[in-house]
TrEMBL record:
Protein name in UniProt: GPI mannosyltransferase 2
Bias (Polar residues): 461-473
The organism of origin for this protein: Calonectris borealis
Membrane topology designation: Multi-pass membrane protein
Predominant location category: endoplasmic reticulum
InterPro entries given in the database record: PIG-V/Gpi18 (IPR007315)
Protein's pathway: Glycolipid biosynthesis; glycosylphosphatidylinositol-anchor biosynthesis
EC number: 2.4.1.-
Keyword Transmembrane helix: yes
Region Disordered, annotated ranges: 460-484
Length: 530
């Protein structure tokens, strides 16, 4: 998908930096190899912070691990904590328990395919569960690198500012949600599919974009919201066509044909995006609400005992159907979120959850600040929903950077996710929720660094992208802020000069790097994290 180009040094640096960050992540969470220069710190982490006895899903291992299994568990076991247990269990056993259906199938299917395919030669050394863990780590390493490249490409098209797009893609590699991009979670796969779909839609590749959005909705439930990008794109094209000059009206088809074309394409594309979700809900209904066939006899006894001990519901066990089966629209996903995790509007607003709200405070402030910055810079554009043709567009000189008109739909998308997550979800997941679903977190952070950090504004101005003088005065841009610039890594440059950077830059980088490191320390030791 043209993600890697030999002619773009910025893209090469993005890919190289992403690979290095992923390797460093794996190195930091490992705790066995003697030649690991960070072994002392890992031993200290494990000594000071032993594995927390969390009340989380932890199915029993049904086969004795071999020497190589134990070695792999010591190296990568920190990446199989919390929800990763669900994904690995589904990849190994399928949807045995009802609450497993909260996790969508495309990612565990991909993990199983790689474990049975590319890693098949290792079956004599590693049991299936170990190969699944190795498969998940390899897949997520690949997807996280590709997601960084896709974000860079998307930023170049949307922002029309290569330097901000470059910086944003580099920030993605040190994302506050880093540990979930590395662990056996679906965040990396979803980010890659979502960013790639957005990029293809911006390029006008509607059908390829629809396919990628559809695959994304088979990875995570919030992929359904991405249908809004396509609806907005079709609606905007239709609205702008109605505003063309009278001399061009004759060249356009009749209004009813335009309406029919827009409506049909929107219905087909949205149907494709919703199809994986609908099929998965139907699968769950057939499995858990269909007539019982005695599946409990085929379930290993330790897994049956776990179900009895924890209250997990098996498929149609003893002919007793779950309550959601009798609902008018039997959607297992919403039932699980409600019954198992108490997810709902304002349900998390309790005094004992204050630490989790504090954990989500940085990303909440950053997301809210991004929305406010965009609205204040483009009030009329926001009022008209970006459906009014602007003079700058007619002249072929659109504004560049974070506050450009093309960013509007992405700001709306991020704001909807932020509001929904803050009021209706376990608020601590906001960091990885936004970090894997929206480019705004990275674009706005890059915008702040580029606009307010003298070390970045002082870079060379060769091959600048021209910008109107009114735009520079409104956004406070320096003359070279949207030039092609150099391919030198600005994140490394800022870190190497950390004593010289502004307090705002320290706050932004401090948020990214502290969550990057703390996530590894806490999550890999089974301690609560975002």
């Amino acid at each position: 998908m043209e993600l890697v180009s030999r002619q773009d040094p910025h893209l090469r640096e993005v890919v190289w930096f992403a690979v290095c960050c992923r390797a460093l992540t794996l190195l930091l969470q490992a705790s066995l190899l003697d030649f690991n220069p960070l072994f002392f710190f890992q031993a200290l982490f494990n000594l000071l912070i032993p594995d927390h006895a969390a009340d989380a899903f932890h199915p029993p291992r049904l086969s004795e691990p071999g020497l190589w299994d134990l070695l792999l568990e010591r190296l990568l076991g920190g990446l199989s904590r919390w929800d990763a247990e669900h994904f690995l269990f589904i990849a190994e056993r399928g949807y045995l328990y009802e609450h497993n259906c909260a996790f969508f199938p495309l990612y565990p299917l991909s993990v199983r395919a790689v474990a049975e395919g590319a890693l098949w030669p290792l079956q004599r050394l590693l049991r299936l569960r170990s190969r699944l863990l190795l498969s998940a780590v390899l897949l997520n390493s690949l997807f996280s690198v590709l997601a960084a490249a896709a974000l860079y490409k998307l930023g170049c098209v949307v922002l029309q500012c290569r330097r901000v797009a470059f910086l944003a893609a580099l920030l993605f590699s040190v994302s506050p949600a880093n540990v979930f991009m590395a662990a056996a979670y679906s965040e990396s796969m979803f980010a890659f599919l979502a960013f790639s779909a957005m990029w293809q839609l911006e390029k006008g590749q509607s059908w390829l974009s629809g396919l990628l959005f559809s695959l994304a909705s088979g990875v995570r439930a919030n992929g359904l919201i991405n249908a809004g990008f396509f609806l907005y794109s079709r609606g905007k094209c239709f609205a702008l066509q109605l505003q063309v000059g009278s001399g061009s009206v004759r060249k356009l088809p009749p209004l009813w044909k335009q309406l029919l074309s827009v409506a049909s394409s929107a219905v087909l594309m949205c149907a494709g995006i919703f199809l994986p979700f609908v099929l998965f809900q139907y699968y769950a209904y057939v499995r858990f609400c269909g007539p019982g066939t005695g599946p409990e006899q085929a379930v290993p006894r330790p897994l049956l005992q776990l179900a009895l001990h924890k209250g997990y519901r098996l498929a149609a066990r003893n002919g007793v159907k779950p309550p959601w089966c009798s609902q008018r629209f039997p959607v297992v996903y919403s039932y699980i979120q409600d019954a198992y995790w108490n997810v709902g509007f304002l349900r998390y607003f309790e005094l004992r959850q204050i630490p989790n709200f504090l954990l989500a405070l940085p990303v909440t402030l950053l997301g809210s600040w991004a929305a406010w910055t965009y609205i204040t810079a483009n009030p009329w554009h926001c009022v008209t929903l970006g459906l009014e043709r602007r003079k700058s567009e007619e002249e072929g000189k659109p504004r560049a950077g974070f506050c450009c008109p093309a960013v509007f739909v992405y700001v709306v998308h991020a704001t909807v996710l932020l509001a929904f997550g803050f009021f209706c979800m376990h608020v601590q997941v906001l960091t990885r929720f936004l970090g894997s679903s929206s480019p705004i977190l990275y674009w706005f952070s890059a915008h702040l660094l580029q606009e307010h950090e003298p070390l970045l504004r002082s870079e060379g101005t060769d091959n600048q992208t021209a910008a109107p003088r009114s735009q520079r005065s409104l956004l406070g841009k320096s003359p070279g802020s949207c030039g092609k610039g150099t391919s030198e890594n600005p994140v490394v440059r800022l870190l190497m000069n950390c004593r010289l950077i502004t307090p705002l830059s320290k706050c932004v980088l401090g948020f990214f790097l502290s969550y990057w490191l703390l996530g590894l320390i806490l999550h890999c030791n089974f301690l609560p994290w975002t």
